[in-house]
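2024-03-11 09:14:02 DEBUG pipeline.ingest accepted 1 chain
2024-03-11 09:14:02 DEBUG pipeline.ingest length=207
2024-03-11 09:14:03 DEBUG pipeline.predict start
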Amino acid sequence: MNPFDAHQIDVADAWLGEAEKLKMTGKHTEAIRVCEKILLSDLDCVEAFEEIGDNYLSLKEYEKAEKALKRAVRLDPHSANANYLLGFTYSALGDWIRSIEFLECADGVQSNHPEILRCLGWSYFHYGQKKRGIIVLERALNLAWDDCLILCDLGVCYLNEKNFERSIALFEKVLKLEPENEKARECLKACKFFKREYDRLKQRHGE
């Protein structure tokens, strides 16, 4: 390797580390600017495009995230992270077909990754493959039993399927792990309300 190339790699790695620190502290715009510096000297840096896309996702600027992540996937079609992030982007946009396409690719590269499976299960469910979606989400939960994002997504899916007992149990588990999780608390209230109403309706009809 040319010493100059090695120096460029070292600098890029240092900047990527700095961008990661900024992202973790919520300074997403600053993180994007750091990654753009990397691209000034290396337009083929997949990791920089991935970081840019990830930060735009946090800012909910989905079109900009899509643009950066499509570039990352073109540069490295086998990047699990780039495919996952692009699949996540399409999920956020409600484009379930494309979301599944890229998430399945990510899963093919890096199988049994709980976060990839969480997003894939969610997309399957909303695309209409509800049973498949729940199975994949349950797989994700088996791999990461204390992941509150998986627990919540699975709880919402079971609520939609009127499996109130399972849904209630999942949201109660979230609140044991994260007592301050207000979203889970509201979902738990909704589950108990709909369960009461559903049970009342069944009694009224003599079921």
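2024-03-11 09:14:41 DEBUG pipeline.report Residues 158 and 166 are 7 Å apart (CA to CA).
2024-03-11 09:14:41 DEBUG pipeline.predict end
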